[in-house]
Amino acid sequence: MSRKLRTKAAVLPQGTGPIQFWEWDVPLPAPGCLNVEVVLGGVCGTEHHLVRRESEFPVAFVLGHEGVGRIVELADDVKTDHAGVTVSIGDLVYWRPMSPCYRCFACTVDADFASCIDATSWLSPANQPTWATFNTISTLKATNHFFKIKSDCPPEAVIALGCALPTILQGMERVGGITFGSSVAIQGAGPLGLAAIMQASLAGASKIIIIEKHAIRLEMALRFGATHAIDMLKTPSISERLSKIKEITAEAGVDLVVEASGSMSAFEEGVPLLARNGRYLLPGTWAGEGRAGISPFEVCRKAVKIVGTSYGSPKHYYHAMKLAETYHNRFPLVECITHRLPLLEVGKALELVVQGQAIKVVIVPPL
Ligand SMILES: [Zn+2]
Ligand SMILES: [Zn+2]
Questions:
Q1: Residue 103 CA, ligand 2 centroid: distance in Å
Q2: What one-character-per-residue DSSP string does 166-229 give?
Q3: Residue 156: phi, psi to the nearest 5?
Q4: Which of 25, 50, 171, 365 has fewest C-beta within 10 Å?
């Protein structure tokens, strides 16, 4: 029987140079693996930082790390997803991009799969199929955790908060969760900020304050459950924004700040917003370098806790998908998809994300 399965991929070459488009034949899935036709490739702000070469990487690699796809080929031994649900050809799945090695200290002793030192972060497409999502066919290995999406859940609801919701779920675990009735401020209402608002809303926070400059994102933040909006264009000074937060919280400051903009100036602004014993979660400053000025005296006197976090473990991807399945009618997840572009326009898609005029941009077929 003849079989021909080719993939086309947006590849970032090693060193320098713009995005290239490569094509190659996709092999039959090896034991434990499956081939998936990408249905929606989510565009995350991190991709833009990579394309701008703000982080170094050792090989050329396929862009895209958020995906929903349809199973097109399964190895004979793959009968279920990683939650034990039976799968077959045609099912829609959502997957965690990197594979933990299950051999390093982080995997074995800390059970912290997001910190695995040997995860398959950078895979050269010249050597092997990849889990990446800005390609027409992705190949998931046995350790690429994937989960079947229920047929009554729109795939857009799952990709809307792509890697952002798993990242926030892990972050909330690290920072100790959101207390019922507490106050939360979120800096930035992109997918990461919206995921944080969703969590604050579900946890029963009494005050959920969004700080953002783009009107489209402010409006969506309110629809996700933000109780107060601080428009940075109308309130351009940091001291004015601090005054507003003090006003909203009766001078106390907020119990939790989530930095979801990736901006260093936001980080400097965040600590003064905190109440005594406040906590500051940093999931946004992954890509890039720099130093910011905060007062260690203020951190000490207010007994502030600053917690960094990045990625999510396999369980956070599972829980993110379950949240999308359960709450896609309560939160306007599907409406977060503001732009759909084909693969060849991936450069434009990345620009849209950083310009802030989009909420979620996805790469769609025909890729
Ligand atoms: Zn991401
Ligand atoms: Zn590991």
A1: 5
A2: HHHHHHHHHHT---TT-EEEEE--SHHHHHHHHHHHHHT-SEEEEEES-HHHHHHHHHHT-SEE
A3: -60, -35
A4: 25
209 with 248: CB under 8 angstroms? yes
Please measure the distance between the N-terminal and C-terminal CA atoms of the chain and give it in whole angstroms.
27
Mean model confidence pLDDT for the chain? 93
What's the pLDDT tens digit per position in 198-216?
999 999 999 999 999 999 9
> How much distance in Å is there from the Cα of 60 to the middle of ligand 2?
22
Distances (CA, A) of 125 to 128, 136, 220: 5, 13, 37
Q: Quick: pLDDT tens for 31-77.
A: 999 999 999 999 998 888 788 887 777 788 899 999 999 999 999 99
Which domains are delineated in the chain?
Answer: 6-162+312-363 (3.90.180.10), 165-308 (3.40.50.720)
- Ligand approaching nearest to the C-alpha of 64: 1
pTM of the model: 0.94
Q: Distance from the CA of 250 to the center of ligand 1, in angstroms?
A: 36
Ligand nearest to the CA of 191: 1
**Rounded mean pLDDT, 268-296:** 92
